[in-house]
């Protein structure tokens, strides 16, 4: 089971984080956020932000998955794909502050 992300534009995410658009682009470049181009527009899953902050544990999850060879689009798919052992999706678990469980799964994702 795969949930579909709700994509938001970079300016919408900037508003949510109360940051300038340029800072959000810097977060993407620094690997703190992941974005994909849809119809030529850079989009970020809205679920990556909660309560005006990047979801706790998300940047570390990005790093673990990149180290396992995942591309940004694959990272998003992995985060939104259900895992019976969590249960639910990794992004839902991160939003529920269950990052340790998600990180264990991300560490072995490339093997």
List keywords for this structure.
111 residues, alpha+beta
Short note summarizing the structure:
This protein has helices at 10-17, 21-29, 58-67, 72-79, 90-95, 99-108; strands spanning 7-9, 36-38, 41-45, 49-50, 53-54. By secondary structure, it is an alpha+beta fold.
Q: Could you describe the 3D structure shown?
A:
- It holds the Pfam family Rv2175c_C.
- InterPro entries: Rv2175c_C, Rv2175c_wHTH.
- GO terms for molecular function: DNA binding.
- By secondary structure, the chain is an alpha+beta fold.
- It has one domain.
- Helix content is 46%, strand content 14%.
- The protein is built from six helices and five strands.
- Strands 1-3-2 form a three-stranded antiparallel sheet. A two-stranded antiparallel ribbon has the order 4-5.
- A hairpin with a 2-residue loop joins β2 and β3.
- α1 crosses α2.
- The two termini are 21 Å apart.
- The model has no long low-confidence stretch (mean pLDDT 94).
């Amino acid at each position: 089971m795969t949930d579909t992300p709700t994509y938001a534009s970079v300016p919408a995410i900037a508003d949510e984080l109360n940051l300038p658009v340029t800072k959000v682009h810097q977060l993407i470049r620094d690997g703190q956020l992941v974005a994909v181009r849809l119809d030529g527009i850079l989009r970020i899953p809205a679920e990556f932000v909660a309560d005006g902050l990047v979801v706790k544990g998300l940047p570390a999850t990005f790093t673990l998955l990149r180290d396992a060879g995942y591309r940004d689009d694959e990272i998003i798919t992995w985060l939104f794909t259900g895992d019976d052992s969590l249960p639910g999706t990794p992004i839902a678990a991160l939003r529920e502050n269950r990052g340790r469980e998600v990180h264990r799964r991300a560490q072995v994702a490339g093997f």
